[in-house]
């Protein structure tokens, strides 16, 4: 049927991604956590059917988060992630394969990604199916005999649709299953010893987690040269977390090579069923967690970006380039995670915790 | 039965030929503009997706260029 359609409609065949290279400096600062480093991404086509790419990414981490200052001492570490990938284009079908390795002193992750995209119905519809598999090895600094594993699988379905000459929509679903050691080996929960004091014990998570996420995105070209971007995403998992995210963005290019962007994003989630800020007794439940990312909270993010396109008519082997700066400010308000830096009060009455983070991306891109 | 099957196949093929893209190739100038991309700069969108994934319980269906390291 698709073949029949292919013969009947005027086609503009699918194309490989553009040859380009990006060099980025990234920085995250908030809640006592400082993470920065480079990310280098380069892509080059080989002939008309194959495009290969590679990414080298580093996180240099200095952590004095609330978890760290209330239970341990500040630490620094580094995570290096390397990815190699290839895309193969045949008519309107693109097959993509990539391999990622992420290494830090106590966490080693490897992952394979495969996806296949088919452009159909006169280039108005793209269907994408994806599968990824990940293998993690978790160790713990200071515990030489500790080593655990976790395996992850991801199933993705995407549908991109041109609705009009100004409207593009994208629908995506993803199911992720994790199996193995899903705890953080350093984190603990707290429980009441008596009405005025508490003690701590290790977290215990289930050994499996399955999540489902669905997202709808839209891009609309305005009557003048600018675009509005919207996204709504829903999330649910077997740990009892339900989340919803919505984002609105505006992109405005100017005639002299600048593109400005602004965005506002909100997110909120329930807590996991085995989360508690303060348990009533040791070993109160089989599973227990006090990870603030498993608590109930809401997040607001504003973002600004500016890009300047240079050498638009080429320079040597370079077709064009751009210099870019993107800044995001994140505000997270926790609803049942309390600030244990405040002492001298009855356990469970400490003020609720909140954090603000600033995220910076500075990068240069060249097309060749 | 065989004739009915042939008629159905023929109808499907004809209806397939009857479907024309309602946005013609010459009407796609706006859609081809770089600002009409969900992931205009893959290096930047992969990073911000990673930041949100690390800070939020939800994961998956991020769209754009996902890193897929599988790490928490």
Tag the structure with descriptive keywords.
heterodimer, A: 368 residues, mainly beta, Porin, 16-stranded antiparallel β-barrel, two-stranded antiparallel sheet, 2 helices, 18 strands, B: 72 residues, mainly alpha, elongated, disordered C terminus
Secondary structure blueprint with pairings:
The complex is a heterodimer of chains A (368) and B (72).
Chain A: H1 2-8, E1 20-30, E2 33-46, E3 50-63, H2 66-71, E4 75-90, E5 93-104, E6 107-120, E7 125-140, E8 143-164, E9 167-180, E10 188-194, E11 197-202, E12 208-221, E13 227-237, E14 242-253, E15 258-269, E16 297-310, E17 320-338, E18 352-367
Antiparallel strand pairs in A: 1-2, 1-18, 2-3, 3-4, 4-5, 5-6, 6-7, 7-8, 8-9, 9-12, 10-11, 12-13, 13-14, 14-15, 15-16, 16-17, 17-18
Chain B: H1 2-18, H2 29-32, H3 42-55
């Amino acid at each position: 049927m698709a073949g029949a359609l292919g013969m009947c409609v005027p086609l503009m065949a699918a194309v490989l991604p553009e040859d380009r290279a990006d060099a980025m400096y990234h920085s995250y600062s908030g809640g006592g956590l400082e993470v920065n480093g480079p990310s280098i991404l380069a892509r080059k086509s080989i002939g008309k059917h194959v495009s290969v790419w590679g990414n080298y990414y580093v996180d240099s981490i200095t952590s004095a988060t609330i978890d760290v200052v209330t239970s341990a001492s500040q630490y620094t570490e580094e995570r290096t992630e390397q990815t190699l990938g290839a895309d193969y284009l045949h008519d309107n079908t693109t097959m993509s394969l990539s391999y990622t390795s992420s290494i830090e002193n106590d966490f080693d992750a490897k992952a394979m990604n495969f996806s296949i995209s088919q452009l159909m119905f006169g280039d108005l519809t793209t269907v994408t199916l994806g599968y990824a598999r990940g293998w993690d090895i978790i160790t713990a600094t200071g515990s030489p005999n500790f080593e655990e594993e976790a395996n992850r699988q991801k199933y993705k379905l995407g549908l991109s649709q041109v609705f009009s000459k100004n409207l593009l929509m994208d629908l995506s679903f993803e199911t992720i299953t994790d199996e193995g050691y899903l705890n953080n080996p350093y984190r603990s929960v707290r429980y009441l010893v008596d009405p005025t004091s508490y003690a701590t014990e290790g977290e215990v998570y289930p050994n499996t987690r399955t999540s489902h996420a669905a997202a709808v995105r839209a891009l609309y070209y305005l009557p003048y040269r600018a675009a509005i971007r919207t996204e709504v995403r829903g999330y649910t998992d077997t740990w009892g977390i339900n989340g919803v995210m919505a984002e609105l963005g505006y992109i405005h290019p100017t005639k002299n090579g600048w593109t400005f962007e602004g965005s506002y994003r909100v997110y909120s989630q329930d807590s996991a069923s085995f989360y508690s800020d303060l348990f009533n007794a040791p070993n109160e439940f089989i599973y227990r967690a006090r990870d603030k990312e498993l608590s109930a909270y809401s997040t607001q993010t504003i973002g600004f970006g500016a890009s300047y396109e240079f050498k638009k008519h080429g320079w040597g082997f370079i077709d064009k380039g751009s210099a870019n700066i993107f800044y995001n400010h994140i505000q997270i308000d926790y609803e049942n995670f309390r600030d244990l830096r405040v002492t001298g009060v009855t356990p469970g009455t400490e003020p609720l915790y909140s954090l603000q983070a600033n995220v910076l991306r500075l990068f240069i891109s060249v097309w060749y | 039965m065989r004739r009915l099957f042939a008629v159905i196949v023929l109808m499907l093929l004809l209806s397939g030929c009857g479907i024309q893209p309602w946005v013609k190739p010459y009407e796609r100038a706006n859609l081809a503009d770089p600002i009409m991309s969900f992931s205009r700069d893959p290096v930047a969108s992969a990073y911000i997706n990673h930041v949100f994934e690390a800070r939020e319980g939800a994961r998956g269906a991020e769209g754009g260029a996902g890193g897929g390291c599988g790490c928490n």
